[in-house]
Every structure is written in structure tokens, then in C-alpha cells.
TrEMBL record:
It holds the Pfam family MFS_1. This is EmrB/QacA subfamily drug resistance transporter. PROSITE patterns: MFS. The lineage of its organism: Bacteria, Bacillati, Actinomycetota, Actinomycetes, Kitasatosporales. Belongs to the major facilitator superfamily. TCR/Tet family.
Length: 539
């Protein structure tokens, strides 16, 4: 196949221009670099976030750094799908990489947690396109049955990033000074040269990608309504514990968000085929179920990926790099299951059994995590990590396959963007809600345990001894509450004095993981009872 043949436009409804396996792998290599950047930046700060928050004096504000990236990435995702349908995948992909690189550069020089969150928001505008466009391109050039084989590589990239990210983040965060600045800043600065490499590779390999232009208006009104609908709701998910879930400010956010979402639906109905998320696609059962399940699984997966590193560092006392290394069972399970499931789907054309088993693995993992406490051995925690990795390997690629399986090819960009939109929304809700639950409970539970422990004369005497008394200065307030903005004092306290703090954190995290278990259990039931046992087409 010549380049001119590969890039010739296709008539609507025609089958895709079929590339050879070698050509698909060439395209895949470029996409994997871009996707790795996007996936890595969702996970790389997880093990470094405590260090960053302590350095910038904002431990309880750390959810903003995670959710800002996810919010903008979520809102931008459907725009990328529509823009790539109109202008082609390659130019839109390059714009995403540029935005990502600029945001990364600014993050490297942030001076406060809220400034870092703002720059992460810019970074997310680019990151939102890196992952969704990669899966759209593979859907463009492969049949539904082949898709599982190639998308398995993407899930392996995502799984690798989920473990390499915390490991790399922990390694850099553990360096107090690296080339004249704090080590955690290099987490973001290293993205700049990597983005340059990704741009060079993408520019070259996507030349052979066929493109059928779709003439549509851009749905600016829908995008604006989506912002009005999502931002208030995601904000209150993060700030509800501070404002009060029933406070006037929270209620105002609920109302504004509801108005925005209603307006979005009405605008999408009026825009028809030009809509960011064409409503007619939701009449397709597999597409509808794929989006619903992506949202629910996203809540559990991203919530767990945000909370577990905090457990390893705050409760188990691990360094950032040790916490990153401790999550290696996740990547091993993810890689093994991803490759196995991709081959099985390609061979049999069936995917439901893998989808249900994958979501079931998430439920088991959440159940394991919900029993973690101060004295839990690492091998037991690793069991939960193995189930998380297996769940990612089996469920994530099959959920995307489910959503894409019956969608017309000319809508593949918008459809794949919708899948990523719902997963990112679930991830944003999971990260914000899990951290909000954690820190809304932790203060009270730590205070209660401290009050009980201070009734013991020996414990009270221990708190008055240096360096315990010095470490607790500013932590214990006059009213009996605790200041949890900076957690570095935990590393200085004697184990006896630190235990009430550790028990309070562990107890709060158990509630977080039980919440995740409930959400993923609902997803498991929906998958088992509602997803049809389809056989994928080989054309």
C-alpha cells in the first residue's frame, strides 16, 4: 500500500482503508508515546503529592492538583473527538501535545498548591486529547475484532504508567535538590523534552493515517454548557467537606451544575449530528452501557489510585520511592492480563466474560483495601494490588470495545471521546470524593483517638518529651482539634505517639475503600446482567 493510497479520502459508510500489521504497529508506536505522557501524568504525582503539599503548605488542598487536571481533561475530551473528526487526527493530536508541554513547564515553577492546580488545569487541556485520540485512531484502522489485540497495548501502557508514575514521582520527590531546584519539580519539567520527542514521532507516523473529513459546526454552546454543568459539581465534590454538604454555597453549586447539565442536553438535542456528544449514539445499547460502566469503574479505579499511595506513606511510613516500588504487583498483573485478554478477544471475538471478570477484580481489590490498618503486612496489601492490575488489564480494554462495537465508523471520534469523557468524569469524581471523604473523617477520628490516648499518663508524658513536643507544636490546637496541612511531623514522632494519628488515617481510608467497593459492585452487577454476549466482527 502506498502512502497516497493510505491517505485517500473515503466515502461515508465505506469500510476503512486497511493497513498491514506492520503499518498498524508503526502507527501504534507513535500513539503509545503520546498516550504514555497523558497516562503518566495522571499517576506520576500520586506518590509525590504528599511531598509537594508539604513543600507548598497545602496537604488538605492536594485534591485540587489532581482534580484540576481531570476536570479540564474531561471537558476537553469531547472537543478533541469532534475537532479530529473535522480536521483530522494528526493536527489535533499535535495541538494536544503542545498544550500539555506548556502546562508541564509552568507546573515546574509553581509556588503554591492553587497555582500548581491552575497550571495542572492547562496541562489537562492537552492530556485530555492524548488518550482519547490514540484509541480513536486505532478504531479508525482496525476491525472490532482486531481492536482488542491492539487496544491491549494501550491498556498495558496505561497500566505501566500507573506504576511507573508513582515510582518515578517518588524517586524525584525524594531528591531535596536536583540541578538547583526541588526534585518534585522535575516530575513536570521532564515532560517537556518527552513532548518534543512525541511530536516528532507523531508527525512522522500519522502521515499514513486515512482521514475522511466530516463537515460540522463546532458546538461552542454545548461546550460552554458542559463547563457550567461540570465545574460546580466537581468543585463541591472537593470542597463539600469544608463548606458543608448542605451549606448555602454547596446548594448553589448543585443548582448551577444542574442548570448547566439540563442546558447541555437541550443544546445537544438541537445541534443534532454537530453536537459534542450526539444524543442519537445513546440509543445504541452497547454504547450507552459502555459509558455508564466507564463512569462507575473510573470512580473506583482513580479513587483507589489516589488513596493507596497515601496509605503507604501516611500509615505505613514509606518514603515516596518505597511507596512507588511497593505498587509493582499492579504492573505485573496488568501486563500479563492485558496481553492475555487481547489475544483471547482476537481469537474468539467474545469479550463479555473478560469485562465481567475485570470489574469483579476491582470489587475484590476494594474489599481487600477496606481491611487495611496500621499493622497490615505488605504482602496482604499486594494481594489488592494484583487484583487492581488484573481488573485494569481485563476491564478497561473491553469497556472501550463494548462502547465502540456498534457505533458507525463516521462517529468513531465523537464516540471514543465520549467513552473517555465518562471515564474521566468518573475518575474526577472518584479522586475528589475519595480525598474529600478521607480528610473530612480523618481530623475527627484522629482527635477522638488522641483524646482517648491522652487519658493515659504515660502517653501524655511521651507527648511532652522532645522531640515529640516540638513536632506536635502547631499540630495540636487549643480546642483539641488537629492541623493536618503538613504531615512531616509523623516521621519525627515516636511510634507510640504517632499511633493515634495513623489509626485515624487508616480508619478513614477504610471508609473510602468501602465506598469504592460499593460503586464497583454496582458496576459488576450491571455488567453481568445487562451487557450482551456479542461476537465482534472481523470486518
Amino acid at each position: 500500500m502506498t502512502s497516497s493510497q493510505a491517505t485517500a479520502p473515503q466515502a461515508a459508510g465505506d469500510p476503512p482503508t486497511r493497513l498491514t500489521h506492520r503499518q498498524v504497529v508503526t502507527v501504534l508506536s507513535g500513539l503509545m508515546i503520546g498516550m504514555f505522557l497523558g497516562a503518566l501524568d495522571q499517576t506520576v504525582i500520586s506518590s509525590a503529592l504528599r511531598t509537594i503539599a508539604d513543600d507548598l503548605d497545602g496537604l488538605t488542598a492536594q485534591a485540587w492538583v489532581t482534580t484540576a487536571y481531570l476536570i479540564t481533561g474531561t471537558i476537553a475530551t469531547p472537543l478533541y473527538g469532534k475537532l479530529s473528526d473535522i480536521y483530522g487526527r494528526r493536527p489535533v493530536y499535535l495541538v494536544a501535545i503542545v498544550l500539555f508541554a506548556v502546562g508541564s513547564l509552568l507546573c515546574g515553577f509553581a509556588t503554591s498548591m492553587y497555582q500548581l492546580a491552575a497550571f495542572r488545569a492547562l496541562q489537562g487541556l492537552g492530556g485530555g486529547g492524548l488518550m482519547s485520540l490514540a484509541m480513536t485512531v486505532i478504531a479508525d484502522i482496525t476491525s472490532p475484532r482486531e481492536r482488542g489485540r491492539y487496544q491491549g497495548f494501550f491498556m498495558a501502557v496505561f497500566g505501566t504508567a500507573s506504576v511507573v508514575g508513582p515510582l518515578l514521582g517518588g524517586l524525584l520527590a525524594g531528591q531535596e535538590n536536583l540541578l538547583g531546584m526541588a526534585g518534585w519539580r522535575w516530575i513536570f519539567l521532564l515532560n517537556v523534552p518527552l513532548s518534543v520527542v512525541a511530536m516528532a514521532v507523531i508527525t512522522r507516523v500519522l502521515r499514513q493515517l486515512p482521514h475522511q473529513p466530516v463537515r460540522h459546526r463546532l458546538d461552542y454552546a454545548g461546550a460552554a454548557a458542559l463547563v457550567v454543568g461540570l465545574v460546580p459539581l466537581l468543585t463541591v465534590a472537593e470542597q463539600g467537606r469544608t463548606w458543608g454538604w448542605g451549606s448555602a454555597r454547596s446548594v448553589a453549586m448543585y443548582l448551577v451544575g444542574a442548570v448547566g447539565l439540563v442546558a447541555f442536553v437541550l443544546i445537544e438535542r438541537r445541534m443534532g449530528d454537530a453536537a459534542l456528544l450526539p444524543l442519537r449514539l445513546f440509543r445504541i445499547r452497547t454504547f450507552r452501557l459502555g459509558n455508564i460502566l466507564h463512569f462507575m469503574v473510573g470512580i473506583g479505579m482513580f479513587g483507589a489510585m489516589t488513596t493507596l499511595p497515601l496509605y503507604l506513606q501516611l500509615v505505613q511510613g514509606m518514603s515516596p520511592i518505597a511507596a512507588g516500588l511497593a505498587t509493582l504487583p499492579t504492573i505485573a498483573a496488568n501486563l500479563a492480563v492485558t496481553l492475555l485478554v487481547g489475544r483471547l478477544i482476537s481469537r474468539t471475538g467474545r469479550f463479555k466474560v473478560h469485562l465481567v471478570a475485570g470489574i469483579g477484580s476491582f470489587v475484590v481489590a476494594m474489599g481487600v483495601y477496606a481491611t487495611l490498618d496500621v499493622d497490615t503486612p505488605l504482602w496482604y496489601t499486594a494481594i489488592g494490588m494484583v487484583f487492581v492490575g488484573a481488573g485494569m488489564g481485563a476491564a478497561m480494554q473491553t469497556l472501550t470495545t463494548l462502547a465502540q462495537s456498534e457505533v458507525p465508523r463516521q462517529d468513531m471520534g465523537a464516540a471514543t471521546a465520549s467513552v473517555n469523557f465518562f471515564r474521566s468524569n468518573g475518575g474526577t469524581v472518584g479522586a475528589a470524593a475519595f480525598l474529600s471523604i478521607l480528610f473530612s473523617l480523618a481530623g475527627g477520628r484522629i482527635t477522638d483517638r488522641l483524646a482517648g490516648a491522652l487519658g493515659d499518663p504515660s502517653f501524655r508524658a511521651a507527648t511532652e518529651q522532645a522531640p515529640n513536643a516540638e513536632a506536635l507544636e502547631g499540630v495540636l490546637r487549643a480546642d483539641g482539634s488537629v492541623n493536618l496541612e503538613d504531615s512531616t511531623f509523623l516521621g519525627v514522632l515516636d511510634p507510640e505517639v504517632a499511633r493515634p494519628f495513623l489509626e485515624g488515617y487508616a480508619s478513614s481510608m477504610q471508609v473510602v475503600f468501602l465506598t469504592g467497593a460499593a460503586v464497583t459492585l454496582v458496576a459488576f452487577v450491571v455488567a453481568a446482567l445487562r451487557v450482551p454476549n456479542l461476537k465482534l466482527s472481523d470486518k
